[in-house]
Specification:
The protein is α/β, with parallel strands linked by helices. It contains 10 helices and 18 strands.
Length: 483
Amino acid sequence: MNFHLSFLLLEILVFLRAVALNSPPPLPLRPIPSWRQLQFHSRRLSMFFHFGVNTFTDSERGSGHESPSIFNPERLNASQWMDAAQSAGAQLVILTVKHHDGFCLWPSAYTNFSVASSSWRGGKGDVVAEFVAAARERGLDVGFYLSPWDLHESCYGDTLLYNEFYLAQLRELLTGYGPISEVWLDGAKSPTAVNMSYDFELWFDTIHQLQPGANIFSDAGPDIRWVGNEYGEAGQPCWAMANRSSITIGRSDGQYLMSGESAGTDWLPPECDISIRPGWFWHRNEAPKSLEQLLDVFYKSSARNCLLLLNVPPNSSGLIDESDFQTLERFSSAIDSIFSVNLAANPLSVTASSVRSSSFGPKQILDERMETFWAPMQGESTGWIELDLGKVSKFNALEIREPVNMGQRVMEYHVEAWDSELGWYLVSNGSTIGYRKVDRLEEDQVCAARLVRLLIDTSRGDPLICFFGLYFDMYNLRHLSSI
C-alpha cells in the first residue's frame, strides 16, 4: 500500500471516528437559570389562596385593628382547597400567611394578632399547618406570602425593630413547616403609610440560608420577578432576563417588568398574578371569570414565557366556592383538550438549514425534553426547521420552546406554511420564545397545511429549539366563545 493511499485511509478513519462520537453542545449563553428557577419554569400553573380577616369583613385591605374573634371559618378544609388546585392542574400552592392587615394564619410567638387569639379551633388552630399538610399529601409544592407592610404591629415604622420582627416571623415559617418552594413578598403599601426601609437583601439571604430550594418573588426577584400588572399579561417581547439593579421594589416600571431585557444580566423570569374573581379576597357578590376570559389570560401569560399564578380565595366558611371549583375544572379540561393532540408529533420528515452534528438534528424538536434540541452549525444566528406532516393538517395554535437551561436566545422568529397556489405564507411571528411560547391564530382562523417551517430571524447566539408543536384549539372558534 503506497503512502498516499495509507494517508487517505487514515483521514477516513479519523472522520468516521468524529462522526461516531457525540459532539459536545454549544456553550450556554449567560445568564442562565439556577436549579430552583428551572423548577419554576417547569410548572404548568401555580395557585394563590388569599385568606384572612378580610374574608370576614368583605374587604380587600384590612385596617389592622379588626378583632381576631371575627376569624372563624367553621368548615375549613384545606384538603378541599387542594382538590381545587389539582383540578386546575396546579403544582405549587401559595398561602397569604399574613396580609397587609398583619393578621397571622399561624400562632406566631411575636404577635397577639393571629389565629391563637381567634375563636377558630378554640384558639388552637394553625391554618398554615393544615395548608401545608394537605398540599404535601397531594404532592404539591408549597409557598408563603408574608406581607412586608403591616398595619397592626406598633413597631412598624421603626426600621430596626420592624426588620427584626419580620425576620423573626420568617424564621418561624421557614423552620417550622418543612421544605418551601417559593416565598412571595412585595413592596405594596399605601402612599400615606409610614415611611421606613425594609432590609430586603438581608431577608433574601436569610430565606436562601433557611430554604435553599425556595424561589423568592418580588419586583426585583432575586429569583422571580413580578410581571408588572395584576391582570395576568406578560409583554411581547418577554425576556426571562432583566437587570435587578434597574428595579426598585414597590416603585418599579411596569412595562420593564412585563418585557424584561435582552441584555439583562440577571435570570429573572416573570410570574403573572391574577385573581379568578374581581377581588383578591372572597366576596359574596362576586363571581369567577368565564372560561373564555381564563383562556385569554393563559395565552397572555403561560403562553408568553411566563408562569400563571391564579388566585382562588376560600370563602368565610373555609371552603372554595362551588362556582370557582367548576370554573377551574372547565379551565383545566380546556387546556388538556387543546394540547392533547400534537399534530406535529410524527411528521414524515424534519429537515433544517444546518445542524451542529447528528446529536443536534432537527428531529430533536419532536419530544418535550429540554435536554434534546436542534442546534445549527456553530456561529449561525439564523436558521430554519421544516416539517412535512405527511398529510394536510388543520391547526390554529403552535408551540415553540427553547432549552432555557442554555440561556434564552431567539429575538425574532416567524412560522410559515406551504400552499400550492400561494407558496410559503406567514402563519405567525413573534419576538421572543423562552421556556414556552404559544401562538394562537386570530379567532376563527385555521391553517390547513402539510408543510410547515419555523424560521429564526434574529438570535443572541446560536439559536436552540427543543420543541415544536401544532394544535387545534376548538375554543378559539366564534360559535364556541360562550362555552
